[in-house]
Amino acid sequence: MQLTYPGVYVTEIPSSVRPIATVSTSIGAFVDVFPMGPVDTAVQIFGMADFERNFGGLAANSPASYQIAQFFLNGGPSAWVVRIAPGGISATAIVDNTAAAQAFTATARSAGTWANTVRLSVEPVVTSGVISTTTFNLGVARYAGNSVSASERYTGLVTGSFTATVNDSSQLVTLTGGANQPATNGTLGKSFAIAGLMLGGKTLTVNTKTVTLALPAGATDGSLTLANMRGMLETAIRTAGATAALPALAGATVTVIGGALWVRTDPRTPGYNPLDIITIADGTGATALLAKTLGFDGAFANVQEYQLGANFAANTGAQEKNGVAGTDGAAADATALLGDPAAKTGMYALENADLFNILCLPLAVELSAGLSTVLSTATVYCERRRAMFLVDIPVAANTPDLVQKFVDDNASSIKSANAAIYFPRVEVPDPLDNYRLKSIGTSGTVAGIYARTDTDRGVWKAPAGIDAVMRGIANLDYLMSDGENGVLNPHGIDCLRNFPVYGQIVWGARTLLGDDAQASEWKYVPVRRLALMMEESLFRGTKWVVFEPNDEPLWAKIRQNVGAFMTGLFRQGAFQGSTPDKAFFVKCDGETTTANDRNLGVVNIEVGFAPLKPAEFVVLKIQQIPDLT
To answer: Which residues contact 612 (CB under 8 A, 6 or more apart)?
Structure first.
């Protein structure tokens, strides 16, 4: 500030306080095959509703779909989900206008057979009393049988510019083209004059079936209205549905629009086929009614809905060409599961996820080859991302001896402070199999318990014990005795137990470096997860230090801010010790950062903490007091 005149000057001095926020510790990550959803893209979800909408929900061939359900059921707050579909194809539909010139191509948002049930419906729009040739409405729906499981509707689309409108919003399809207005679905007649029409007792031919028009009660020939004629035609067509080649005619509807009649069948009607075409022509005999009287002379007869992946003869009279059917691709293998780091596919799609803490790969143990490669690569990746890898066990590892063998056989791949394994597998009711019990891995369930424990007690509390009840679990694949538990626990294999009163609970909290023989400082899951949380929080919270002058004023600020962060954790009960100086230390001074370090542009910060270790073994000493009286 330049002082130019006598007086009082006010200056704001920047504070040295830069609060360090504690990062989340409970964000899951799942990579697997799913019925639908973007491929090789990390999508964050916040519950099963999000998962079902984006990825299609439970699927028999998707072990992670059951694990995700367990994750949220047991307390998980959010998760990143990556879908793999090696060689999968996205379904398409090619739609023309009435002159057989291409209007647009619709392509499913993602590969898979899921999109073969997606249908599009082009509906007419009335402008100034007539049907517009430049504006229309579009419906997009995904069907499960005859029921709509997801739907979208776009109104007032304008030819030449409608694709962008749909593409910006649709979760089901993307459109290309759009220069021509697409043909309306169903059979749309032309506007006609109604004055003096004599229709009673006359006939039409609807899909080869001759039907008779009957005057509705109270109506007379010569004084009919559009509403009268709509009802007469709808009744006649529905009558034809009882015996005609198109049974869906029994649910046909006739709508008055722009002075014309629009005929369609209802998707809820038994026998409905979106590719059905309704043709209306003259009847027979002296009572024949010329089709043009009702505007159907030269009317455009089209399919009821455009269906993605439809395959039919090119010259059907419909304005849809052969589409490409969607496929789920080949069975997933180790290559697809891991993906390519450079292309960010497979597991490496998580590179686009800002933060995750718990990685689950339930599909890994179902691979016929490449298991050790997947386990080792995932372990290394979690070490780099400061996350835990929950290793599932195969179905065959169903006894204590076999799970110990599985761990020993894969020791070089999974022996890490950032990995943990739980035995046995669990059984859950399967909604896709009439709620029969299905054996699944444990990673999703345990990840949810990690999250629940973090919320209730803190990341420094072991996610185990009588509070770590596994929700949604009907049975364990193997019921262990205390002796068998005592064999696995010293080898770093965490056990799941069934105790009376408490039910199914997690009864172990060791990492895969928790083998007693290894004597690792990262023996326990809560200690390791607390350290990972601190590392990530300090990594993110000290970026302001970069390019600051490297001397005592900077070091003092670092000590102040990191010390405040550690003090906050101490007050929450994260460390041992009755006072902060006994619980942790923060060093950043001329001793940790030498003159040579400063010349190299390095500042060193040392943070130490006294972790709380779980009480694994509670020893009760009971002494009998002798009677000295």
So the answer is: 460, 526, 527, 573, 574, 575, 576
**Structure-token pair, residue 76:** 């998980």
Phi first, then psi: give them for residue 461, nearest 5 degrees.
-90, 135
- The helix or strand, by DSSP H or E, that contains position 383, with its residue range, turns out to be helix 371-385
Residue 315 — very low, low, confident or very high, per pLDDT cuts 50/70/90?
A: very low
CA-derived radius of gyration, the chain = 35
Residue 282: name the closest of 274, 293, 272, 273 by CA.
293
Residue 431, token pair as written in the block: 């909604």
Across 111-125, 318-332, 394-408, least confident range:
318-332
Closest CA to 542 of 569, 568, 567, 560: 560
Span 182-191, pLDDT tens digits: 999 999 988 8
The answer to whether the 28-86+331-527 and 92-177 domains have the same CATH topology is no
Only one residue has tokens 């649709």, namely 170
Answer yes or no: is pLDDT of 629 > 60: yes
- Whole-number Å distance between alpha carbons of 280 and 156: 29
Write the pLDDT tens digit of every residue in 78-89.
999 999 999 999
How far is it, in rounded angstroms, from Cα 141 to Cα 148? 6
pLDDT of residue 253: 93
pLDDT tens track for 398-437: 999 999 999 999 999 999 999 999 999 999 999 999 999 9
CATH number 2.60.40 given to 92-177: yes
The angle at the Cα of 605, spanning 599 to 611, to the nearest 5 degrees, equals: 160
CB contact at 8 A, 428 and 435: no
Q: What pLDDT, on a 0 to 100 scale, did the predictor assign at position 351?
A: 97
Q: What is the DSSP letter of 242?
A: T
Sorted by where each begins, the domain ranges of the chain are 1-20+550-629, 28-86+331-527, 92-177, 191-300
CB of 425 closer than 8 Å to CB of 402:
no
3-state secondary structure 530-595: HHHHHHHHHHHHCHHHCCCCCCHHHHHHHHHHHHHHHHHHHHCCCECCCCHHHHEEEECCCCCCCH
> Would strands 419-423 and 388-391 be described as parallel, antiparallel, or unpaired?
parallel
The DSSP element (H or E) to which 237 belongs, if any, is helix 226-240
Give the closest residue to 357 by CA, choosing from 10, 18, 30: 30
Cα(479)–Cα(81) distance, integer angstroms: 32
Q: 230-237: which pairs have CB atoms within 8 A and are 24 or more residues apart?
A: 230/254, 230/255, 230/256, 230/261, 232/199, 233/204, 233/261, 233/263, 233/294, 236/204, 236/206, 236/211, 236/212, 237/206, 237/211, 237/263, 237/278
Phi/psi of residue 104, nearest 5 degrees: -165, 165
Structure tokens of 118?
């997606």
Domain 28-86+331-527 has CATH 3.40.50.11780: yes
Amino acid in the structure at residue 386: R
